[in-house]
């Protein structure tokens, strides 16, 4: 990992990106998106993740997160990525209706060859590109970036229409989002 891209302040507010190797469009299926949502929920309730914003795109995820946990954000993210990669690959292997199964598994196996930490498959790119958000300007910019990502990708016309995003949480007072989160109050910064 590049020296500039590490989480130095383990309790700080960070923007992170998780990218599937080869930009494989895994998250076009509800079953795989649900694994991510369930894992967010688990990390929130059991590991101390504080999720402030997210979007699940077809081949990557953006989040704004923090923690007050002494274990630190790096450990939570490591566990999240390890669990989700194992669970998603297992689901792909066992999914008889997955038309892309052989192709995806072949790619995950290929990318594992370049990572000595993986013996069989690699699902996520190793680098999360963490960026600590220290100013209102950066927080606002990254929050907008996350929520407008599905609009820019032409998935939806309006950010609130995209189901797998925290845009609904922010626009409707956390009522219609898929997961309860700690919303960022930009007046606090």
Summarize the structure.
This protein is an alpha+beta fold and 189 residues long. It has helices spanning 30-47, 73-94, 101-112, 136-152, 167-171; strands at 14-19, 49-56, 60-67, 131-132.
Folded structure, characterized:
The protein has one domain (14-188): Transposase IS200-like (Alpha-Beta Plaits), CATH 3.30.70.1290. 39% of the residues lie in helices and 13% in strands. It has helices at residues 30-47, 73-94, 101-112, 136-152, 167-171; strands spanning 14-19, 49-56, 60-67, 131-132. Strand 2 and strand 3 form a beta hairpin. The model has no long low-confidence stretch (mean pLDDT 93).
Inertia-based shape:
globular
> Looking across the biggest beta sheet, what order are the strands in?
2-3-1-4
Number of helices: 5
What is the CATH top level name? Alpha Beta
Structural class: alpha+beta
Which runs of at least 5 residues are low in confidence (pLDDT < 50)?
none
Rg over CA atoms, rounded to whole Å, is: 16 Å
The string of secondary-structure elements, in order, is EHEEHHEHH
CATH H-level name... which superfamily? Transposase IS200-like
Q: Mean pLDDT, rounded to whole units?
A: 93
How many structural domains does the protein architecture include? 1
Brief descriptors of the model:
Alpha-Beta Plaits; 13% strand; alpha+beta; globular; 5 helices; 4 strands; four-stranded antiparallel beta sheet; single chain; 189 residues
Annotate the secondary structure layout.
Layout: E1 14-19, H1 30-47, E2 49-56, E3 60-67, H2 73-94, H3 101-112, E4 131-132, H4 136-152, H5 167-171
Antiparallel strand pairs: 1-3, 1-4, 2-3
Helix pairs in contact: 1-2
């Amino acid at each position: 990992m590049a020296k500039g891209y590490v989480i130095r302040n383990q309790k700080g507010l960070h923007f992170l990106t998780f990218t599937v190797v080869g930009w494989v469009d895994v998250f076009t299926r509800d079953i795989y998106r649900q694994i991510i949502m369930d894992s967010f929920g688990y990390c929130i309730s059991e590991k101390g993740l504080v999720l402030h914003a997210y979007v699940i795109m077809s081949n990557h995820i953006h989040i704004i997160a923090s923690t007050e946990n002494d274990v630190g954000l790096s450990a939570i993210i490591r566990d999240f990525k390890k669990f989700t990669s194992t669970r998603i690959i297992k689901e792909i292997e066992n999914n008889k209706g997955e038309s892309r199964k052989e192709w995806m598994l072949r790619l995950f196996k290929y990318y594992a060859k370049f990572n000595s930490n993986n013996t069989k498959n690699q699902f996520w790119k190793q680098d999360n590109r963490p960026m600590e958000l220290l100013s209102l300007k950066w927080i606002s910019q990254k929050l907008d970036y996350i929520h407008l990502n599905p609009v820019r990708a032409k998935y939806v016309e309006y950010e609130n229409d995209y189901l797998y995003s925290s845009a609904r949480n922010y626009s409707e007072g956390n009522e219609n989002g898929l997961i309860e989160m700690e919303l960022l109050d930009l007046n606090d910064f």
